[in-house]
Design a protein that fits this description.
CATH topology of the largest domain: Cytochrome Bc1 Complex, Chain A, domain 1
Strand order of the largest sheet: 1-2-3-4-8-5-7-6
Number of strands: 13
Number of domains: 2
CATH architecture of the largest domain: 2-Layer Sandwich
Order of helices and strands: EEEEEHHEEHHHHHEHEEHHEEHHHHHE
Strand content: 15-25%
Radius of gyration: 23 Å
CATH superfamily of the largest domain: Metalloenzyme, LuxS/M16 peptidase-like
CATH class of the largest domain: Alpha Beta
């Protein structure tokens, strides 16, 4: 059935007749409501801002019994100075090590005993702590995450123990050819800048970080106005807001008033720098990434880019997969990808092959990229790319975790939260000419090449 969506301006009544604002000092509004063809509500997105600046965004999903919660901090590896390289990721690890009322084991047990899943990750633009539980156990997840983010101890022995864990993680990534080649590609593209450096830091930078540096970093960047809590699933918005307010109001964390702060939109990203970077590793294969400039996160042409990337190397029917693997047998894996930030982006192709086939593989990939840059894609390829995007989007958003991630990112970066129908409409509106023009612009410039192998 076809869904339809409505947007309710701030301060107006909801469809159920309840006022959008729930109490003085707390601003709440309905972002949009989606109904099925029979008029039944299938999802509703609401946003509340506490006086402290903490933002809470929820999506109530009909017909599910799970709930997912994410706590988003608007700081990542690209916000670090050279002396603090790897600090965001280090802090992410340390917030699991214990609070004033919970040990590291207590944190794990709290979620394990209700069958929940929880984890965290650090990106270049942000850090996210997330959990997924049965709907009835959501308060447990919210309380644990709030405790970790606001009341962690960061004890010196834990800092030293986790330092060794992170050094092992860096060594593990250095043994993974895929990680090595993508890090090398970013370094070549953006140079020795925060955006070009590896998220986890280096052995030298992690060994040099002190507990006081990490603690100050935490206090400076984890403030109510820089945090977002996103929740999706079988939930009630008002109940979630109460639970979040209670979980985060430890040690006066929510005292004071502030306006929400979005992630800085203009940092120090450099223009993509063409060139070739290589790293010798005793691997069986040569791994390569070939590409160049992409689009920013908010560029209106990002839907055309999605179609281009998908048709180029996003499926088994894509041009690169058919030409590289099916027709020539040059590689087991070949795919295209995009990386998008507030002020920069990349478009690339990744593949791995036996050393003897490296030159032939590069020749074929370069030929296909040049062909698409010059002549664009066929109408059939564009149509397949649109279909792949539509299907992947709809299937992905059937999961509460995917909805939660979408909410959190949109709120954190201050970007428009489109409904599913709006996104599908923009994908369908992409034309063959738009894809061809974009391909000529992005694929016709200087190339960035990273090679890792024997």
């Amino acid at each position: 059935m076809t869904a339809r969506s409505t947007r309710v301006p701030a301060g107006q009544q909801t469809s159920a007749g309840r006022p959008a604002a729930s109490r003085p000092g707390r601003r709440t509004r309905v972002v949009h409501t989606t109904r099925d063809a029979d008029g039944r509500v299938t999802s509703r997105v609401r946003r509340s801002v506490l006086p402290s600046g903490l933002r809470i965004v929820t999506e109530e999903m009909a017909g599910v019994r799970s709930a997912s919660v994410g706590v988003w901090a608007g700081v990542g590896s690209r916000h670090e100075s050279g002396a603090l390289h790897g600090c965001s990721h280090f802090l992410e690890h340390l917030l699991f090590k214990g609070t004033h009322t919970r040990s590291a084991l207590d944190i794990s047990v709290a979620l394990d005993q209700v069958g929940g899943e929880f984890n965290a990750f650090t990106a270049k633009d942000y850090t996210c702590f997330h959990a997924r539980t049965l709907d009835e156990d959501l308060p447990v997840a919210i309380d644990v995450l709030g405790d970790m983010v606001t009341a962690s101890v960061l004890a010196e022995p834990d800092v030293e123990a986790e330092r060794q864990v992170i050094l092992d993680e860096i060594a593990m990534h250095d043994d993974d050819p895929d990680d090595v080649v993508h890090n090398l590609f970013a370094l070549q593209a953006w140079g020795d800048s925060p955006l070009g450096r590896p998220i986890a830091g280096t052995t030298a930078s992690i060994e040099a970080l002190t507990r006081d540096q990490v603690h100050r970093f935490w206090q400076r960047h984890y403030r109510p106005e820089t945090l977002v809590v996103s929740v999706a699933g079988n939930i009630d918005h008002a109940a979630v807001v109460r639970q979040v307010a209670a979980a985060f109001d430890r040690d006066g964390f929510l005292d004071g008033t502030a306006e929400p702060a979005t992630v800085p939109q203009r940092l120090d990203a450099r223009r993509v720098r063409p060139g070739t970077a290589t790293a010798h590793r005793p691997f069986e294969q040569v791994n390569l990434v070939l590409g160049g400039r992409g689009l920013t996160r908010t560029d209106p042409r990002r839907f055309a880019l999605g179609v281009l990337s998908t048709a180029l190397g996003g499926s088994t029917s894509s041009r690169l997969f058919q030409e590289v693997r099916e027709r020539r047998g040059l590689a087991y894996s070949v795919y295209s990808f995009t990386g998008q930030h507030a002020d920069a982006g990349l478009l690339g192709v990744a593949a791995g092959c036996l050393p003897a086939r490296q030159d032939a593989l590069l020749d074929v990939v370069r030929h296909e990229l040049a062909s698409v840059a010059a002549d664009g894609l066929t109408p059939e390829e564009v149509e397949r790319g649109q279909g792949q995007l539509r299907g992947g989007l709809v299937l992905g958003l059937e999961d509460s975790g995917s909805r939660m991630f979408r909410l959190g990112k949109a709120e954190l970066f201050g970007t428009e939260l489109l409904t599913l129908d709006e996104i599908l409409h923009r994908i369908d509106a992409v034309t063959v000419d738009e894809v061809g023009e974009l391909a000529g612009e992005l694929l016709g410039g200087g190339e960035v090449l990273a090679l890792v192998g024997p």
